Automatic annotation (TrEMBL):
<keyword id="KW-0808">Transferase</keyword>
<comment type="similarity">
    <text>Belongs to the glycosyltransferase 2 family.</text>
</comment>
<keyword id="KW-0812">Transmembrane</keyword>
<feature type="transmembrane region" description="Helical">
    <location>
        <begin position="20"/>
        <end position="41"/>
    </location>
</feature>
<keyword id="KW-0735">Signal-anchor</keyword>
<keyword id="KW-0256">Endoplasmic reticulum</keyword>
<dbReference type="InterPro" id="IPR035518">
    <property type="entry name" value="DPG_synthase"/>
</dbReference>
<keyword id="KW-1133">Transmembrane helix</keyword>
<feature type="transmembrane region" description="Helical">
    <location>
        <begin position="328"/>
        <end position="350"/>
    </location>
</feature>
<keyword id="KW-0472">Membrane</keyword>
<comment type="pathway">
    <text>Protein modification; protein glycosylation.</text>
</comment>
<feature type="domain" description="Glycosyltransferase 2-like">
    <location>
        <begin position="86"/>
        <end position="194"/>
    </location>
</feature>
<dbReference type="GO" id="GO:0005789">
    <property type="term" value="C:endoplasmic reticulum membrane"/>
</dbReference>
<dbReference type="InterPro" id="IPR001173">
    <property type="entry name" value="Glyco_trans_2-like"/>
</dbReference>
<dbReference type="InterPro" id="IPR029044">
    <property type="entry name" value="Nucleotide-diphossugar_trans"/>
</dbReference>
<dbReference type="GO" id="GO:0006487">
    <property type="term" value="P:protein N-linked glycosylation"/>
</dbReference>
<keyword id="KW-0328">Glycosyltransferase</keyword>
């Protein structure tokens, strides 16, 4: 009969005290690492499962019209476009910064619409579970400009900027879709720079597909992404920021480079434009809900072969930023999710 296995304590009795302690510490470290890895991979798996459910779910979201007190059904990104451009504004506790930015945006859009009858627009404010009067401010703009031009989507609870942008994109009506921050850090007139690049790239894409398809292909059917960029302001920013912030940002940019690759210098600028076809592919694939969804967009553009270009835009520092030093750690964690989730094939990319 085989001898019973000796307990670990009995084996440890024959080992020197220092070696026993080393063995114990090593075992604990291995157990902790394996446990953390198991939790991490389970987290990635859950994100993938949640995304699969969201893709197949039928949306019951609606817009509230404060003028008629009726509920307006949300359109889908899969519907044909009804407007030339949609502006998606994610907002979380923006009661103070939103009014000025919205007023400037709507004045510009009204002027363009008056000068060009073919220019139609909508502004979609996505309230990401604000605890202040952000929704009240937004609904006041609907009263002034009608629900056909201004709409508010209430998410109920805070999900993160990425989720707010995703929901806005999926329920917009434009041929072109522009995401922009609620603080007005980038002038809305700069959308013309992005718009010009979209049309220029669309012309190239159409000419490359041949004359037979180029004449019938609509702008909304061409897949293009144009990223606003503050990279040209980097030297000025480095000179004014504290050294440790510069160190952290440089480190973050390095991790972004390793995750998404080269091509876009400023992934985090909140001023980006997509054609409807590009937005349909990107925002039905996106998983991240908070900080690094921008990097995921770049990653997806490369893997879906969606042409993208970076355009310099104006940018002004507006007090009240939601980004904190601890946000950098969350960003790095999300970049790791991208690398592992897509790299190991846990997250599928649907084309």
């Amino acid at each position: 009969m085989a001898a019973a296995a000796w307990p670990l304590s009995a084996v440890a009795g024959f080992l020197p005290a220092s070696l026993s302690l080393t063995l114990l510490v090593t075992t604990l470290v291995v157990v902790l690492v394996l446990g953390a890895a198991a939790v991490f991979f389970e987290h990635i798996r859950k994100i993938g499962c949640t995304h699969s459910l969201e893709r197949s779910a039928v949306s019951d979201a609606f817009f509230e019209d404060p003028n008629s007190l009726k509920k307006v059904p949300c359109p889908s990104i899969f519907d044909p476009p009804e407007k030339y451009i949609s502006l998606i504004v994610p907002a979380y506790n923006e009661e103070h910064r939103l009014p000025e930015a919205l007023a400037e945006t709507l004045n510009y859009l009204k002027q363009r619409s008056a000068a060009d009858k073919s220019f139609s627009y909508e502004v979609l404010i996505v309230d990401d579970g604000s605890t202040d009067y952000t929704s009240k401010v937004a609904f006041n703009f609907i009263k002034q400009h009608k629900i056909d031009n201004v709409r508010v989507l209430l998410l109920g609870k805070n999900h993160g900027k990425g989720e707010a942008v995703r929901k806005g994109m999926l329920h917009s009506r434009g041929e072109l879709l522009l995401m922009l921050d609620a603080d007005g850090a980038t002038k809305v007139t700069d959308l013309e720079k992005l718009e010009h690049q979209v049309h220029a790239l669309a012309k190239k894409v159409k000419s490359s597909t041949g004359a037979s398809t180029s004449s019938s292909q609509k702008l909304s059917d061409v897949e293009i992404a144009v990223f606003g960029s503050r990279a040209h302001l980097e030297k000025q920013a480095l000179a004014t920021r504290k050294w440790y912030r510069n160190f952290l940002m440089k480190g973050f940019h390095l991790v972004v480079l390793l995750t998404a690759g080269a091509g876009i210098r400023d992934t985090q600028c909140g001023f980006k434009m997509f054609t409807r076809a590009a937005a349909r592919k990107l925002f039905t694939n996106i998983r991240l809900k908070r900080w690094c969804f921008d990097v995921e967009i770049v990653y997806l553009c490369k893997h879906l072969r969606i042409p993208m270009v970076e355009v310099s835009v104006s940018w002004t520092e507006i007090p009240g930023s939601k980004v904190r030093m601890t946000s950098i750690l969350h960003m790095v964690f999300e970049l790791l999710l991208i690398k592992v989730g897509y790299g190991l094939g846990i997250w599928k990319i649907y084309s």
